[in-house]
TrEMBL record:
Polymerase that creates the 3'-poly(A) tail of mRNA's. Mg(2+) 1 binds at D95, D97. This is Poly(A) polymerase. Its main location: nucleus. One of its GO terms (biological process) is RNA 3'-end processing. Mg(2+) 2 binds at D95, D97, D149. Belongs to the poly(A) polymerase family. Gene3D superfamilies: 1.10.1410.10, Beta Polymerase, domain 2, Poly(A) polymerase predicted RNA binding domain.
Amino acid sequence: MYGMTSAISDALPTDIDIQLTKSLDDALSREKVITTDEDLSQRLEVLSMLNNLAKEWIREVSMERNLPEITAENVGGLVCTFGSYRLGVYHKGADIDAIVIVPRHITRTDYFATFYNKLKENPSINNVRAVEEAFVPVIKMIIQGIEIDMLFARLALKEVHEDTDLQQDDLLRNLNPKCVRSLNGCRVTDSILRLVPNRESFKKTLIAIKLWAKRHRVYSNALGYLGGVSWAMLVARVCQLYPNAAPATLIHKFFLIFSKWQWPQPVLLKPSYFMDLGYPVWDPRVNMADRNHVMPIITPVYPQQNSTFNVSHSTLAIIQDEFKTSLDIMGEILTGESSWSKIFQPSKFFTKYRYFLAITVFANCDEELLEWRGLVESRLRFLPTSLEEIECVQRSHLNPDQFVLPHDKSQGRPSSVWFVGLEISKSNGTVVNLDFSTHIRDFCLLVKSRAHTIFKPGMDIQVNHLKRKDLRDYVPDELKKEKAIPNTVGSKIIARLSTEGRHSVSELVEESQKSPTSRKRSIEDETDDNIIKKALLSNDDIFVLGSVESRMSPSSENKSNNLVNTLLSTSKENHSILTENETKENINIGKESLLLTDARHSTIESGDSLTSPVSNKCCADDESEENDQKKLRLLHPTVA
């Protein structure tokens, strides 16, 4: 038995499964996500250079510590990879996660001082920057166009060699917690590979799911979605439940299982175990904060941690929507109605919403922008959560993709911009004046509170409120791409609505939930629906997760209203919905009327009132520290 439960099915692939997997191979090849020998050779060359540099540095520091020369030559040290490269699922252009593991006489101070300088002085290495105060401290760099994130771990050993078994839990004894977190990158990756029944099927499935997650804009740990290790653990769990299945089948089962998963029930690849080493582990029975995690996916090595602690109710709802939509698409692929290219089509974002916030960061040079952008990105997930506290904001959807501001808007300054799509709900027939200024100000203060060590003049952050028509000045190419993407679901319902116009709300919702693929779903799927509980743990096997009521998704009524509004907004003939070309701010939806304050060009300066602007600019040196902390507590008390 693999994992926490017995398999759902041990069935071997059928001829159809094998044929579908071959067509999947062709699709992935067209998407250019399968690595080539040239890519592999380049990465091996880069890693070899880093390994040599690290060993040379360790030898130099050892000599400075007055170790005998022969001892300094033999203390070892090594560079290990983890993440997508170690799993074998990287693609061209992907970064490499690595870690320098050193013996006990080499310190973290040495790493961020002398090794950092050694990297900076090497002409083959570019954009070297240290993020020493991060939760997992890292040195970032670019070598031959490949981004490298290099961590540091110091073992309590005299020597570190290639045969050192990092899976031994006892190696963690008396280590700095930062070293433990760094080491667990390798330990988790290796454990995942040991816990899947068929590595090749796992790798191919994970390559496809990672591509899907990026195209559907749900791939980013920092921004509240899922990172690479979390997607790997979800795929590994499906492989455990269907140990003999072909990748095409595994992808279908992936969407089937996780579209029905009873979050916040955790996903685990193996039973948790306890080691008396003093490190905190994920346990909602003991840790109150763990009870608030909405989508726990637990790492399989000690100390067990939730890899998705950044996921919020908002991002979970977005991920679940993508799971459900993609399950329908997989039904079409299995029945031959669609090809694999449909599942990898980018999800619509800019044409999905009518109102947006644009969060833009500026710096004086590209190197400073990299550092400033990384800091803002690490805090950005708090803004959508804050905006959803506003009664009429039903959804605040952060697009994890970064864009470059057009030259005429950036005035030639290096910049990056993110977008948040806003879904405005009905409000009992009243006119609502939406004011985001307080939430935006708090967010800017939150960023400022983390910027004191890196801030330089010229590092700015600006937040603008936009309508869809304004996006032409920001992302014209993206708008064209999205408009060329056909609707994935609901086209027949919309067509019928435009000709008949007499469906009730309940009929529309019921019809929308009965896509052709769901009606044609096979008997095997119906069986899976009945036995899906096999993938879940019994109440005796999981931690007590506290009240589920506080984690409930929006009510069915709200979802119905949202769906109908979406359908109505696409029908121009029978419904008086404003088009994106109209300039009025007043939006009529049935008997509803929503009014958004239009103050795109205003800025917040010290002493300004916070009651009117929607567009705000915040430089990182405009408020006192005491005021920062007070306002930060409004947005995120635990951070302040």
